[in-house]
Design the sequence.
């Protein structure tokens, strides 16, 4: 019984249910600070409260599913692409203001390209050059967006 | 209707609009050809760029990407047995067999012709039915709108793939994310957590790009190099034989009918239409005993079906403001961003936009037919670009595109957040498409829900006592019964008895 409970709660549906209960918790936490009102004159909290209730309902159904299918495990697959892509985006966000678009894009390209193994430095350099040029042509020259390719702290 | 169509062509034939139409269908064709880049990701990537052009041109271009991708999807299916889009997966079977038999050219040509006929029929139906539907919809009150959106969401999330409960849970999450920000009625902030950037709500572009754009890249990285297509497709080899032409025509009519029907339903769309058409050809085609061995009906039917569905899918989106799938939800979001309220009033208030769109659809289909057949060689050579060189560039476009909407680094972190959410959801087998539907419809749903109950003084029976809303409510209950109850019963039967044996 306990084995099954542990298996069920870490199964695909079990973790899915957990996620929905977390969403429900976040929703009710927020709703608690809002006026509910009544059906004829709804406050800002009324509709979200219904959504929170639906999360609970679907979470319960998934829990039942988990109990019936405890052996359905989640499959993580390769973590490298996920980590590198997300790291690249964080790096872009951090570098853009500091060092300008060109360097931020170069960092994003290099980090995300390394999600795939076995790239030569030459390939990376070529890729960076092409993408930076492409962005400059499309977004700065053609579309005239305010994209600072170079650091701004030197100019102002 | 003739007057309206003339007005439409006047709009669509202006140089600028024609150019955006051409750009849209060409991009659509391109991403359709490339496996691993779908219309959803492409439209969300180009959404920010359209903020700088007129709403009509923006829609013409974004819609062009969508139906252009339906054309392009079959190219990789036929030549390499790799579906460029989900809706052309079924074309792999007979299409690739025809390539092996040395009939690749004819297969490509027939798929383009079938797509054109299917698309044209879909457009005609749209021009005929949309005004009727819109007129009918003018009678709708907020109760009907609320139920219509609920029906659209329930149907879209349960009729597609996977578990109905998971789809519905994602709709709820989408609706919840949709109402983040300032509540206009009461003036209170909801789910903002002190981030003033969230006051206007969650960014549609960041969410779509995070969920679909990043998701596609993560799935496709490291899948190894695709096999490059071999051989050349010459214009001469494209001419189909008389017999092939004769066999494919009835399949095209059947496919168009099937596609036009499924396109209008929420949640079904072009993929189901093409599969259904293939199943039909299996039963009724003249060469049905040889299906799967490279017969033209197996290409012509599904191709006509997915293209007519791609066109009729616009009917509920434009006339009722209720999108049937995530692509339509994005287009609806684009309209709202441009200050256009989709719905029955749109036909009356901005007829030039609606009819301009209709006319541009047909011109777009024509462009796809005429220009892209000679250009198939070019598209094929595009298939030789390895994905490992392509995806860093796509990722940069995603990030810059998100940033450029309002020059906000915060939006890049929203993109990141949705990328993480999308990854977690995929791990747990939650579908992401219903989330975007909910996100777009969330604020509208709450508004109509509130108004309905305000008008009825808080009486919930207002959702069933009005005739149209009663029917809509019945439909929702029906979808629930069909989708939720059988799996639930199966579960309940399974749980008590088998528990000891399985553990």
Sequence:
């Amino acid at each position: 019984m306990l084995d099954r409970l542990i298996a069920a709660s870490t199964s695909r549906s079990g973790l899915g249910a957990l996620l929905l209960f977390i969403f429900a918790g976040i929703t009710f936490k927020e709703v608690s600070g809002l006026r509910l009102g009544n059906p004829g004159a709804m406050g800002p909290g009324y509709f979200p409260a219904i959504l929170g209730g639906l999360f609970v309902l679907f979470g319960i159904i998934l829990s039942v599913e988990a109990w019936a299918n405890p052996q359905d495990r989640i499959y993580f697959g390769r973590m490298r692409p996920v980590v590198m892509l997300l790291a690249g985006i964080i790096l872009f966000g951090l570098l853009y203001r500091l060092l300008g678009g060109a360097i931020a894009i170069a960092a994003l390209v290099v980090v995300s390209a390394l999600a795939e193994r076995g790239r030569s430095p030459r390939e990376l350099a070529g890729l960076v050059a092409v993408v930076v040029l492409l962005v400059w042509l499309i977004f700065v020259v053609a579309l005239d967006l305010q994209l600072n390719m170079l650091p701004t702290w030197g100019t102002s | 209707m003739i007057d309206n169509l003339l007005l439409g062509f006047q709009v669509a034939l202006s140089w600028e609009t024609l150019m955006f139409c051409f750009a849209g269908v060409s991009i659509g064709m391109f991403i359709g050809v490339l496996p691993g880049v779908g219309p959803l990701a492409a439209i969300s990537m180009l959404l920010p760029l359209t903020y700088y052009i007129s709403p009509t041109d923006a829609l013409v271009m974004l819609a062009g990407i969508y139906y252009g991708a339906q054309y392009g999807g079959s190219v990789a299916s036929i030549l390499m047995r790799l579906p460029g889009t989900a809706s052309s997966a079924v074309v792999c079977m007979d299409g690739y067999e025809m390539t092996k038999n040395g009939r690749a050219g004819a297969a490509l040509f027939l798929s383009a012709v079938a797509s054109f006929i299917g698309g044209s029929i879909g457009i005609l139906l749209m021009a005929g039915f949309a005004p009727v539907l819109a007129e009918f919809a003018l009678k709708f009150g907020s109760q009907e709108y609320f139920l219509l959106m609920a029906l659209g969401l329930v149907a879209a999330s349960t009729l597609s793939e996977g578990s109905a409960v998971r789809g519905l849970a994602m709709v709820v999450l989408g609706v919840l994310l949709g109402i983040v920000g300032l509540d206009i009625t009461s003036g209170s902030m909801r789910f903002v957590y002190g981030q003033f950037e969230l006051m206007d709500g969650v960014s549609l572009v960041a969410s779509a790009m995070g969920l679909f754009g990043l998701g596609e890249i993560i799935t496709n990285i490291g899948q190894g190099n695709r096999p490059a297509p071999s051989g050349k497709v010459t214009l001469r080899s494209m001419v189909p034989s008389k017999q092939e032409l004769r066999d494919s025509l009835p399949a095209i009519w059947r496919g168009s009918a099937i596609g036009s029907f499924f396109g209008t339903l929420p949640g079904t769309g072009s993929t189901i239409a093409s599969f259904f058409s293939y199943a039909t050809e299996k039963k009724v085609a003249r060469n049905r005993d040889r299906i799967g061995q490279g017969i033209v009906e197996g290409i012509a039917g599904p191709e006509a079906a997915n293209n007519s569905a791609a066109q009729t899918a616009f009917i509920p989106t434009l006339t009722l403001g209720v999108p049937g799938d995530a692509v339509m939800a994005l287009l609806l979001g684009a309209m709202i961003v441009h200050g256009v309220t989709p719905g029955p009033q749109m036909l009356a208030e901005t007829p030039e936009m609606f009819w301009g769109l209709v006319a541009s659809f047909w011109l777009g289909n024509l462009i796809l037919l005429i220009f892209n057949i000679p250009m198939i060689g070019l598209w094929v050579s595009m298939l030789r670009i390895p994905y490992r060189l392509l995806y860093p560039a796509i990722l940069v476009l995603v990030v810059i595109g998100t940033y450029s909407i309002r020059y906000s680094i915060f939006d890049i972190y929203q993109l990141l957040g949705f990328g993480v959410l999308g990854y977690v959801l995929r791990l747990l087998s939650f579908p992401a498409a219903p989330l975007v539907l909910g996100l777009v419809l969330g604020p509208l749903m709450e508004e109509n829900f509130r108004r309905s109950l305000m008008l009825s003084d808080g009486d919930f029976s207002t959702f069933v006592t009005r005739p149209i809303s009663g029917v809509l409510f019945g439909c929702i209950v029906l979808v629930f019964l069909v989708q939720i109850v059988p799996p639930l019963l199966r579960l309940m039967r399974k749980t008590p008895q088998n528990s000891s044996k399985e553990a």
